[in-house]
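Weekly structure sync - notes
Attendees: PM, LS, DV (DV joined late)
Agenda: review two folding runs queued last week.

Item 1: First target. Sequence and structure tokens pasted below for the record.
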Amino acid sequence: MIYELNKNNIAFPNPNEADKNGLLAFGGDLSSERLIAAYKNGIFPWPHSNFSLLWFSPNPRAVIYPDKFRLTRSLRYSLKKYKIEVDTNFSKVITMCAKTRKNTTWINDEIIESYCRLHELGVAHSVESYDEHEELVGGLYGVCVGKVFCGESMFALKKDASKSALYELCQTASKKGGLIDCQIINPHLSSLGAVEISRDKFLRLLNFLGDKSPLL
């Protein structure tokens, strides 16, 4: 059963009731209150063309344990090229994610506006890579639930720029006992050290780490 969300009620159904594709609900809106409630319950929005707003909680779930990030020799060299900053240009990062990723249509104007509001509330964050000319050349953004960083998207204009940002995020998460949520596995994430865990395990980790002091 796929639930229809009530615009006057931000409550979500149990994420374990999602279908085999992780689809849990449709409808509702992208208010800050609803988005925060979603992430706290291991749920995220994923707009699809020609469909109402869709909400997912996949099983299995892709995560990166920070100390398991795969630092290759090539990336180790690339790290020297970039200066990493946090939250200095969130709107530019999410906009570049929308513009540069092939076949990415879900980061629409409504998504950008909604996550910028979350950023203003100190809930959504960006990690950015700047080159020697102080130009933004890569980065990522996501939502923090305590010590869990729920990654949404990344972009790179130069080699390893987004990987460098993710590496530094993992360094911070490792020091603070955090976790990186990658939502759904793909070959690129696997190459960086992402693994799949059950939704139940992810929700337990989210429940434990979500009440801790913020990762960023």
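Item 2: Second target, run right after the first with the same settings.
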Amino acid sequence: MAKKRHPHHGGAWKVAYADFVTAMMALFLVLWLTSQDEKIKEAVERAFKNPFSSVTKESVGIIPNKDSQALRSTGGNFDSASAIELTMLRRLNDDLLKSLKTETDSEEKDQRSVQLDLSPEGLRISIFDRSKKPIFERQSSSFTSYGAWVFSTLAWEISRHANFVVELEGHTEQGNAQIREDYGNWEISSDRANAARRKLEENGVKGAQIRKVAGFGDTSPMPGAEPADQINRRVTVLLKVKAGGKNS
């Protein structure tokens, strides 16, 4: 008696599915690369052209040269050797924009409490002490409840990135009367920067990350602003990449 044969199903669909998955992965890689910094693209291009040569211009092998990386990071030049740090700064910038969305999107530009600027130095965060939405109590270094919320939110985001160092600067506008005979713009700008330091540390930022706390009085107005404009009354938080990009 002849055996009954079962119909044979080919494996062509498996090959087609594998090709589809491969195509999707290739598309994902292309989209990812097109969204990256030019320096990252250059590094990837060099790696594909010669996989066994250095991946950065300054490296003598596959691993970037530490001395060269430290020198360039210290100088504030974000090239391929510090592309990871630059990417992290951009991600932090985006996270802060989301956390402080009501301050950066919903208000008119000249009324915003927070301004974020990416520069060769790092990420500069300016927190403005505006009359309608004060960060500090009048003629004081004590936070308003709103100011405490802003700095607590900043601290939570900054604390997630311990490989950045923090510099704090206090500023005021010109034309202020002396608060006391021995207490004026220099003193209050310094005290407000120091109050910001304490608030950051209270909310998770490591003390070792903070490298500078300074008051500039009314000597450093915002670019393009009149010296007496209230926009100059601010605390600036500058996040910079550590030398060598090492974590603490």
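Discussion on item 2: The beta strands are 114-119, 122-128, 164-171, 210-215, 234-241.
Action: LS to circulate a short write-up before next sync.
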